[in-house]
Amino acid sequence: MTMKTKLYHHLQSTTTKNPQWNTLLREAANKSLFTKALSLYLHMLRSGAFPNAFTFPFAIKSCAALSLPITGKQLHCHVVKSGCLLEPFVQTSLISMYGKCSLIDNARQVFDENPQSRKLTVCYNSLLSGYALKSRVKDVVVLFCEMRGLGVEINGVTMLGLVQPCGIPGNLGLGMCVHGFCVKFGLDMDSSVGNCLLTMYVKSGEIDCGRKLFNEMPRKGLITWNAMINGYAQNGLANNVLELYKEMESKGVCPDPLTLVGVLSSCAHLGALSVGKEVERKMEGCGFSSNPFLNNALINMYARCGNLEKARDIFDGMPVKSVVSWTAIIGGYGMHGQGEVAVQLFDEMIRGGIRPDGTAFVSVLSACSHAGLTNKGVDYFGVMERKYGLRPSAEHYSCMVDLLGRAGRLNEARELIESMQARADGALWGALLGACKIHRNVDLIAGTRQVEVLGIAAKKKSAWPSTDEM
């Protein structure tokens, strides 16, 4: 009889007199009806039935899914009172719940209080996942080394916890070591581990490594295709996205909304209107037409491809419009020189109670710049931080320098750059220098060179107009 079978029979022997409660709890939790599961647990207590080691994992899982740490702590008390704390399934659920509720120190305490934890892979895996969620890379590595030192079995779930924080910038070296470990022990054949490694590479910008791994994976599910397609999209490789999407279709793999969002983004980038239309037909055929993320991507695609009428039709037909929807249509009108319409839409969004984010302000500032609405743009820039608490980024400053530069307000543009808390990059000074060239302001550009340009001109000499060119 295996250890797992013995454990099952032991738990069965402690079943309550009302096993139907456990069945109902399990069904609710497995169907992601977590609120219902907790309600059932309360009804169970009120009925006089007593929870056992089969009851708690489903109730605790529901607390974790709903991020209810206080309720989770109350359940922890019930566990202690019922004498179920040493049951591996219960203990693992508690560690996982505390980790998902960002109470990682509580998770560690539960782990440390039971000596059996250091013999069980499931307990280590739960704690590893908790550390990974908090991006505590050092703790993840130390815990993994402890597992290895004690001879605790390593499995695919262990590696998922170890790979996850390796996608954080600066941790690629560690991730490659983990990949090597997976290959050595044959864990890279686990599709979940392979997908996680693939995501790590594309997030780190190592597209070639990601594609090599993708090609070597014996079984490619939809998650695998999505990881590679969206990896290409996020790294600006739009042509690769469309090529891979065609390959995916030829293999008979059906896309989901996540796939199509990445494809539409690439269509927008390339101006591939015909492919975008094919994707729209695919949406209709698959029943994805009401998906708000796809509709936002469609608006952006049609707008960037110059079909503002179609983009507006989709926008107007959306029953609920998020700030992303508004930003897409505002940006579309702005990039095609219809700044007045873009501004009207932005103001309408504000009146409708939609709070603008940084991307929305980039779109409207760019629209103002291209339409010559200088004062309107200055007003928007002013309310960003004052009214909405949004600190302007380099992209916002770049829009403003372009806005003021086009209007010939060069001194204001220079003062704006010099008022930045962070050091302005070459792109900002380049925008100002370009405006100086257009308006033939030799004195201002000469002064700018003395202050900033000398430090970066060596790398970008060709970008700076000479005095003779002025």
UniProtKB/TrEMBL annotation:
State the Gene Ontology terms under molecular function. RNA binding
Q: Give the record's GO biological process terms.
A: RNA modification
* Pfam families in the cross-refs: PPR, PPR_2
Q: Which UniProt keywords apply?
A: Repeat
Question: What InterPro entries does the database record attribute to this sequence?
Answer: PPR_At4g14850-like_plant, PPR_rpt, TPR-like_helical_dom_sf
The PPR repeats lie at: 120-154, 221-255, 291-321, 322-356, 393-423
Q: Which PANTHER family does the entry mention?
A: OS01G0819800 PROTEIN, OS07G0578800 PROTEIN-RELATED
The entry's protein name is Pentatricopeptide repeat-containing protein
Organism equals Salix dunnii
